[in-house]
Specification:
602 residues; alpha/beta; Transcription Regulator spoIIAA; 2 domains; 5-stranded mixed beta sheet; two-stranded antiparallel ribbon; elongated
Amino acid sequence: MPPPDLSMTSTQIRLSPRLAGARYAVALRRALAQGYGVADLRADLMAGLVVGIVALPLSMALAIASGVPPQYGLYTAIVAGLVIALLGGSKVQVSGPTAAFVVILAPIASRHGLGGLCLATLLAGLLLAAMGLSRFGRFVEFVPYPVTTGFTAGIGIVIGVLQLKDFFGVTVAATPPDFLERVVELARGFPSLRWSEALVGATTLAVLLLWPRFSRRVPAPLAALTAGTIVGLVLGRFVAGAEVATIASRFSTVVDGVVRQGIPQLPPLPLLPWRLPGGDGAPLVLSLELVRELLPSAFAIAMLGAIESLLSAVVADGMTGRKHDPDAELLAQGIGNVVAPFFGGIAATGAIARTATNVRAGARTPIAAVVHSLFILVAVVALAPLLGYLPMAALAALLLQVAWRMAEAKHVAHMLRVSPRADNLVLLSCLGLTVLFDMVVAVTVGIVFAALLFMQRMAAVSRAQLVNVAELELEVPLPPNVLLYEIAGPLFFGAANKAMTTLRTLPRKGFKVVILDVSSVPIIDATGLVALDSTVGKLRDGGLVVVLAGVQQQPLRVLAKAGWRNVPGSLAIGRDFDKSVEVARAYALGSPEASGLHATRA
């Protein structure tokens, strides 16, 4: 169809793209600009110490669950936690290793070793930084809630099953990567259960659950791990054959040629991540093929890190009444994950539980998260030998509680009762795929399902219908040879064809002008443009004058870019509905003034 002229529109279209600048250290700069006094420092110091106590054992447990020695979880909390706190967009967010990463990191560590895991973290950091610089933060909010709930619950189930081996002291012949095979191996090894390990795990878990009822001044993880450690020491000292596996008995490090048990009493030191051990224990060989192999995992880390960090920041906003900067937070998460691998750190992101603890403890600024990182640093340097006494069963109990919270069984059951059936399908698909395959497959399939569901729902609200002109409150009635159709809803690839179907069967005999009221069409995409072009072309070929009335700004820009122009006697396009109706009336009456109205008034 010939291109129409848009000269009749009441406003001129201006396309002025703006290049957004990078935002960094937004939260810290805002906090300092508002004034930072002694009372603020005191509050941040206390909050940082409380969170540090909680994060210390959790960081070790998460590193072990991810398949690497515990000190690398501590290095992550120290380096990434510090960098992200200083550069981030949330005043009270605490970052570090999180349980959600376990299902992604464990397979990487199994195949590519610590070196591959650090390299994948570095690549993920670059992707996160690119997301922040591209202002990608607002798009993460569009990930559907059933998708996040489904894969989070699935991650909780996987983590919980992973902890049963250490919680009960079960000996297994192998730890296969497949979830079902892992469950089978665990079941086969269950007769090897050690009652001493189970007692330590049960004691720790019981204190974790019951301690908040008696005291909230002392963090429950500190009290529980202390109780579990005491039980383990007593059993090992006084009961024959009741040895309990600890960090010191399970892990060792070579320092200056000397093998030292447990965690090295050293701060995180600079290193090159691609020189760390690979899957075979030998130093990693950096190559383009290795980078290409790690990229899918790095993308999964980046996407999960973006989702979890921004969800955590939203939780913090709800608790504090403040607003975080999502793009600054993504940029900080990216930089933190780029820097951490050069000190042995693994993937980090905003931790919801630690952030909530930080808020409850009275944190006011990012200084609290900085104190949390410095506390862990001091603990590594000063208390590393004592940390070696922590029982593996006690750390497993800590992660079992984390897994239970992530699974949110009651919340998932409630959603399944009250949510639409299609949303439940998305949730259960993500949950099942996370457990049986991995999170990358789960999120990909879940988002595709959710997108198809969204398109179906948008198609249901998009419509084109004949309007009874007698019901319109017009000062001068429209002539009988004018048809008025209302098109409502977004015209995009999921809904355009449905909305245009009605217009393709439009009666032509006895009619001269068709008004298409598009004032309720907020957006139009390429598919909608093609469908509208086809429909309008057929109407014009049938000898009808087509008037597009009430065109909104976004559709107007799309039409202009596509080369649409006004064609006197054939097509008119107007932003103002009333003026467009005057043009249609003039054409219907065969008025010689129609061309003038067409050019100047619609």
